[in-house]
Amino acid sequence: MTSRYSRAAALLLSLLFFVSLVPVSVLGDEGMFLPDTLDQLPLKKLQQRGLKIPITDIYNINGPSIKDAIVIVDGGTGEFLSPEGLLLTNHHVAFDALVAASDPTKDYSTNGYLAKNRSEELPARNYTVQIPQQIKDVTSEVLGGLAEGMPAPERIAAIAGKSQALAAAQTNQAEGIRGQVLPLNEGMSYYLFTYLVLRDVRIVYAPPKNIGFFGGDPDNFEWPRHCGDFTFMRAYVGANGKPAEYSTSNVPYKPKKFLSISMAGVKENDFVMVMGYPGSTRRYRESYSIGYNQDVAIPMQIEVFSRQLEALRNAGKDNRELAIRLQSRIFDISNTLKDLEGSVVAMRRAGIVEKRRAEEAAFTKWVNENPDRQKKYGQVLPSLQKAYDELLKTQPRDLLIQQISGVSDLFQIASIISNVAADKEKPQAERNPNLAMLAVRARGALEEIFAERMPELERNMLAYLLRKAAELPEGQKIPAVEKRFGSLSGDARVRAEEDFARALTDSKNLNSAAAVSPLFEMSSAKLRELNEPLIDFAGEIAEMATQSQSRTRAFNAAVSTWRPLLVAGITEMRGAKLYPDANRTLRFTYGDVKGYVPHDAAIYQAFTNLSGVIEKDTGREPFDVPVKLKQLYAARDFGPYATPDGQNVPVDFISTADIIGGNSGSPIMNGRGEQVGIVFDGNYEGLGNDFFFNESKGRTISVDIRYVLFIADKFGGAGYILKELDIRNAPASMRKAA
Questions:
Q1: Dihedrals φ, ψ of 433, to 5°?
Q2: Which residues contact 419 (CB under 8 A, 6 or more apart)?
Q3: Measured between alpha carbons, how far is 286 from 387 in angstroms, rounded to an integer?
Q4: How does pLDDT run across 414-444, given as a tens digit for each residue?
Q5: CB neighbours (10 Å) of residue 22?
Q6: Would you call 434 exposed, middle or buried from its count of C-beta atoms within 10 A (0-12, 13-18, 19+)?
Q7: Residue pair 137/199 in contact by the 8 Å Cβ criterion
Q8: Is residue 24 over pLDDT 60?
Q9: What is the pLDDT of residues 513-551, one digit of tens each?
Q10: What CA–CA distance (Å, rounded) separates 102 from 526?
Q11: Count of CB atoms within 10 A of residue 597's CB?
């Protein structure tokens, strides 16, 4: 599901450097706009398309507005729907909480959960709700006083120091307030965001997996879709109204604003708008970055994730408890994997590298036409190319070193043990105090690490990565690997690699917290006496990873110097202000409900219905329709949620709104600001939207709010929730019942 900002996706951000140079198009629906810039949108055109409310109803610094109802929930977005802290988000956003509360005797991740009253609401372990408080441009405070020509490392440090100080000044842990300063447009500007963080979040109703994730991975990123991807949660505070940890004495949070729901539905070409927290886009970067990601970084990530996914699925085949525990991790990886695969296909199919090169040629021509522009922008693209030329000298080796160094928690522990022992041999004044503190933390985490350890996965992944190291070209070989296996070839080398990886899982010195803990006290000589080859190897890899990170810092310093100038130049050349890339902050986007042509001889309509769910039923996961849902369909027992002809229930619909991972759970609203659906996915043809916006084929997929209410009420027995909601345009039968 493209709209979840997954942990796996977050890990990729340090490797993904690509984005296009396309500016905001006032004719299309591209753009994820900061709330304080909405008055700069073409409002008359939006009103002609269907916007019925003033912009101040969406964002208002002087009073409650829609922005106050839109919150961060774990890796996604949520929205308040009642004055009692009830909020709606996606099933896959709440899925980690369902998994954490499950075991073989109560599998909420598969069967769903219903709290019949507030005392039964299920604590969502480690979840928070972050409510926006302040959005402020602090560019002058961050960039003011920086000397022109300041060396890049000093400039980066100064900006980081100012940003941290501004954020700290707004942070008040006792009141639950968190401050954050983030760069926009590659560091051309900086914004301060503050949030009220609520730590007591509970599940009210979650449908079973065969509704909330109906279609599973085969349907993921696909249209037509028939998924009821939603969950109701509730946020709580202490009796004093302040954020608090879970307690039975806590009370529901009273939001400043909650959304109304419209049961009028939507039709083709209706105007819609979305507010949420998109995770990350890179739409203004150079062709060198595109090529690097398309041809080096992303393909490696695809290979690693594919192998990891296979190993995880095998690990849970014969262990029901482990299979339940791994569900969320498997979901994250499979979701990210399909996104990456589709993104590479989309980039190559659209010829993005070639298009960016053509745009850069036009930019260079424009720069060279004016001496002042030459002075200001003339070195931007050559300097960026030089940075990437230097980066590619050690790629993909450096990427692989980072993968090996993080292959497992135990591997990292082994590297710390090796480095601590070596550090002890230095004079006291030369020892690394940070390493000693790291060792203390690592030693304290041993029990937890071994409780979660999966030895077979470790062995599988290390053997795979050693095999990848053997395939590196000459000049990029990893010395620590070649020292151990370089003299071997063919099957003999493969066997040696597998035996080495097996030693990680079979070693008696590394098989428990009690066995590992004393190793932190040993000298290098004592460790060598153990004849534990993994410890030395991990230490050598850690040293190479440190060198790799140093090169990455140098690369980042170089590109961070030139990228703001590139964005400034493109802005000046285009004569239009560019919307900033997504960075997990509140954004507004809009579009129309609209079908599309995915490929030759096919036309996709904009809506799906319950009849399509029944048509997909195979009786086997992931297309196993619940018996009760089939019974409701057969009896046409749809209540007030039916289509106008009474023969169906609307399920999902698509629109041209511009979203990305992190928008999961965002409300999609009509022109009156009433919620008509909940965003949960994007289509396969629109992948690559981290990098470029596909106006003709990219679509946002949302659950129709009527399907949400139908499942909660008629299927799930959670109809009491509806009494809290402000439902507009309800059928006469529903109003009479209310």
A1: -65, -30
A2: 435, 539, 542, 543
A3: 12
A4: 999 999 999 999 998 888 888 989 999 999 9
A5: 20
A6: exposed
A7: no
A8: no
A9: 999 999 999 999 999 999 888 999 999 999 999 999 999
A10: 44
A11: 12
